[in-house]
Amino acid sequence: EGAVMGKRACEQEVQSKRQRVRRPDVEGIGAKPQYWLLKSEPSDYSIEAMEAEQTTVWDGVRNAAARKHLRAMQVGDRCLFYHSGCKHLGVVGEVAVSVAAYPDPADASWAVVDVRFVERWPEVLPLATLKAYANAELSGLRLLSQPRLSVQPMSLAHYQFIRSLAGRHT
């Protein structure tokens, strides 16, 4: 009986470690769902392409910090879709994680997630508008302090405020 109890305790410890590895705490954003900003240059992959395909693998991320964030993503997490590297920078819609992080088939040392289309916003919510709230409601938003990071966590408050700026109902 002692061996069985020891085995059970060992299995529980292993399962606990798996859970920590599969979903690392990203600076206190631990409650489900989590909220993210995904950036893409529209010449590479646009919200229009996302809408047409409905689901896609979010791949090609080759930054260690962004990889950490991808690995933390779980099914149901919400992501604002941001167009970068173009004339009209800004949030253009929303997607949701449909398959949690898994190794990138092109290089297993990196991670990918699958996302599904949620909505395309009728207007771009410009970066300039977001910057106007940098010292108030959007204080601490990574996009405003680390603009080059392609996958960024955000708080529920930031997510809801950005949606409200775009006239979207949360």
From TrEMBL:
SUPFAM superfamilies, per the entry: PUA domain-like (SSF88697)
Subcellular location per the Swiss-Prot or TrEMBL entry: Nucleus
Taxonomic placement: Eukaryota, Haptista, Haptophyta, Prymnesiophyceae, Coccolithales
EVE domain sequence ranges: 34-164
A GO cellular component annotation in the UniProt record: nucleus
Organism whose genome encodes this protein: Calcidiscus leptoporus
Principal location class: nucleus
Protein name (database record): EVE domain-containing protein
Keyword entries, A-Z: Nucleus
InterPro entries: 5hmC_binding (IPR052181), EVE_domain (IPR002740), PUA-like_sf (IPR015947), THYN1-like_EVE (IPR047197)
Pfam families, alphabetized: EVE
